[in-house]
Design goal:
eleven-stranded mixed β-sheet, 496 residues, Amidase signature (AS) enzymes, 11 strands, globular, 16 helices, 38% helix, alpha/beta
Length: 496
C-alpha cells in the first residue's frame, strides 16, 4: 500500500508507531503533486521546501518524546482564499495575484498549532464565485475521476487534491455549497459547519453572513479530527460561537441509536438525475439497515432558496469586494486615461476592476449592486431576507420531528468542463440542494454513496440542527464502516 493511499488517521498511527516519518509522508504527497499537477491542476502553488522543513521539525520533536499536536506531521492543502503569511493568497484572481498577507487566518494558526504540514493553496473559482472551479485565473481544475469533467466548486481544488491523493485532508470554504458540492463530485467527505462554529478571521470574504470554513477528507474520521482542530471561539471573529468543542474524532465511532432521518420531499422531483436519485435512495435504505427511522419531511419554502441566495450572496459580495479598487493593495491598472468625465481616480478604479476581476465576479457584483440600489432594495434584497427567515423556520420545524435531514447534494453528477459556462442559470441551479443550510446557518455534510455508470461519484447530504456536527460525523462514520465508496481511488495517468 502506497503512503498516499493511507487516511490521515492511519498516517498518524504509523507515525506514532515509528513506521513512517512526516518527512516520508510529505515527500510522497509532494511527489504526487509534481506528477499529476499537469492533469488535475488542483493547486495554484505549493511550498516543497517549507513543507519539508516543517515535517523534519515535527519528526525531531516526536523522536525526542516531546508533545505534538493532533495533526502532527499530516499534510494539508488549504483553499486559496485563506490568508497565509508564508504563501501568496490570491483567491484565484488576477486582482490579488501577488498579494502576500501579513498574518495567518485563525484556521491556519490552528493547523500550525496542531503541527499540520501545510503543502500549499488549492485552486478555486475566483473569489469563491462559481460551482465548477472553471473561473480561476490559474485555469480550471479537472475532476480526478474523469479529467474532462469539472470537480465542482468553488473549493474544487481542495476536493480534487484529496481525491487525487495529493493530500489526505484539505480545507475549503462554503457560502452556498462550495465544500459539499465539490466533495460530492470528487467522492470525498466534506463538512460545512454551523455558522460561527469555525472562525472566519482571515477568510477573504464573499458573503459574510453565509461563509463557513470546513474540512474535507477521505473519511468521516479524518474530517472529525480536523474539525477538532478548527472549531472553537475566536475573539477576532465577532460571529464566532462561544462554548466547549467536542473531540469529534473520539466520538465519531460511537453508535447513534434510534436516529430519526427526514427525507426532504422537495429534493426528489423535477431536475434530479435518475442515477443520483437511485444512489441516494440506496444510501437511505442503508441507513435504515443501520437502525435509522426514515420519514418524509417537507420544507415548504426551500423552493425559493436559490432565488433568495442569488440576491443575498451577490449583495454581500458587492459590498465586500468594493475594497479591491487598486488604491490600497492588489492589482492596479496601468495607462489610466486622463480625459474621462469623472477624473483620473474614478478612471483608475474602473480600469482596475474591469481588468482585475473575471466575468463571473463582475456579474455577481452587478447583481448585488442592483439589488441594493435605492429603487430595488425593498423589492429584492429585503424580500430575500424575509424568505431566508421562512426557510430557517422550515428547518427549525423539521427538527421538531426528526434528528437529521437526508437527500442529494447535487441534482446531477459532475458535468463536462465548459458545458455550462455560457449558461449561468444552469450553473446556479447546481446549488439547489445546498444553499438552504447556508441561509439557515446550519451544518451539513457530503458523504460518498456510489458511482454512476460513467464512473463519476455521487453523494448523499446529511443536514442537522445548529451545532450537531458531532451527530453528522457519527452518522457518516457508521455508514462508512458498512460501505467502501470512500476506499475507491481514481486512476490517474502519469503526466508527460
Amino acid at each position: 500500500m502506497a503512503i498516499v493511499d493511507y487516511t490521515a488517521t492511519e498516517l498518524l498511527e504509523r507515525m506514532d508507531s515509528r513506521d513512517l516519518t512526516s518527512r516520508d509522508i510529505t515527500a510522497a504527497y509532494l511527489a504526487q503533486i509534481e506528477t499529476h499537477h499537469g492533469e488535475v491542476n488542483a493547486l495554484v502553488r505549493w511550498d516543497a521546501e517549507g513543507a519539508m522543513r516543517t515535517a523534519e521539525a515535527i519528526d525531531s520533536r516526536r523522536e525526542l518524546g516531546e508533545p505534538v499536536g493532533l495533526l502532527a506531521g499530516v499534510p494539508v492543502v488549504v483553499k486559496d482564499n485563506l490568508c497565509t503569511s508564508r504563501h501568496v493568497t490570491s483567491c484565484a484572481s488576477r486582482m490579488l495575484a501577488n498579494y502576500c498577507s501579513p498574518y495567518d487566518a485563525t484556521v491556519i494558526e490552528r493547523l500550525k498549532a496542531a503541527d499540520a504540514v501545510i503543502l500549499g493553496k488549492g485552486n478555486m473559482d475566483e473569489f469563491a464565485m462559481g460551482a465548477s472551479t472553471e473561473t480561476s485565473a490559474f485555469g480550471p481544475t479537472h475532476n480526478p475521476w474523469k479529467l474532462g469533467h469539472i470537480p465542482g466548486g468553488s473549493s474544487g481544488g481542495s476536493a480534487a487534491a484529496v481525491a487525487a491523493s495529493m493530500a489526505p485532508v484539505s480545507l475549503g470554504s462554503d457560502t452556498g455549497g462550495s465544500i459539499r458540492q465539490p466533495s460530492a463530485h470528487c467522492g470525498v467527505v466534506g463538512l460545512k459547519p454551523t455558522y460561527g462554529r469555525v472562525s472566519r478571521y482571515g477568510l477573504i470574504a464573499f458573503g459574510s453572513s453565509l461563509d463557513c470554513i470546513g474540512p474535507m477528507g477521505r473519511t468521516a474520521e479524518d474530517v472529525a479530527r480536523v474539525m477538532s482542530v478548527l472549531a472553537g471561539n475566536d475573539p477576532k471573529d465577532a460571529t464566532s460561537i462561544a462554548g466547549p468543542v467536542p473531540r469529534y474524532e473520539m466520538s465519531c465511532r460511537e453508535p447513534l441509536d434510534g436516529v430519526r432521518l427526514g427525507v426532504i420531499d422537495e429534493q426528489f422531483g423535477e431536475g434530479l438525475d435518475d442515477e443520483v436519485a437511485s444512489k441516494v435512495e440506496m444510501a437511505i435504505r442503508e441507513f435504515e439497515g443501520l437502525g435509522a427511522t426514515v420519514t418524509n419531511i417537507s420544507l415548504p419554502h426551500i423552493r425559493y432558496a436559490i432565488a433568495a441566495y442569488y440576491i443575498i450572496a451577490p449583495s454581500e459580495a458587492s459590498s465586500n469586494l468594493a475594497r479591491f479598487d487598486g488604491a490600497h493593495y492588489g492589482y492596479r491598472a496601468e495607462d489610466i486615461p486622463l480625459d474621462e468625465q469623472d477624473g483620473p481616480l474614478v478612471a483608475m478604479y474602473r480600469k482596475t476592476r474591469r481588468e482585475g476581476f473575471g466575468e463571473e465576479v463582475k456579474r455577481r457584483i452587478m447583481l448585488g449592486t442592483y439589488s441594493l440600489s435605492a429603487g430595488y432594495y425593498d423589492a429584492y434584497y429585503l424580500r430575500a431576507l424575509k424568505i431566508r427567515r421562512l426557510i430557517a423556520q422550515d428547518f427549525a420545524d423539521a427538527y421538531k420531528n426528526v434528528d437529521f435531514l437526508i437527500g442529494p447534494v447535487t441534482p446531477t453528477p459532475a458535468f463536462e468542463i465548459g458545458e455550462k459556462m455560457e449558461d449561468p442559470l444552469a450553473m446556479y441551479l447546481g446549488d439547489s440542494y445546498t444553499v438552504g443550510a447556508n441561509l439557515a446557518g446550519l451544518p451539513a455534510l457530503s458523504l460518498p454513496c456510489g458511482h454512476t455508470a460513467e464512473g463519476l461519484p455521487v453523494a448523499v447530504q446529511l443536514q442537522g440542527p445548529a451545532l450537531s456536527e458531532e451527530g453528522l460525523l457519527q452518522l457518516a462514520c457508521a455508514f462508512q464502516q458498512e460501505s467502501d465508496w470512500h476506499l475507491m481511488r481514481p486512476e490517474l495517468t502519469k503526466a508527460e
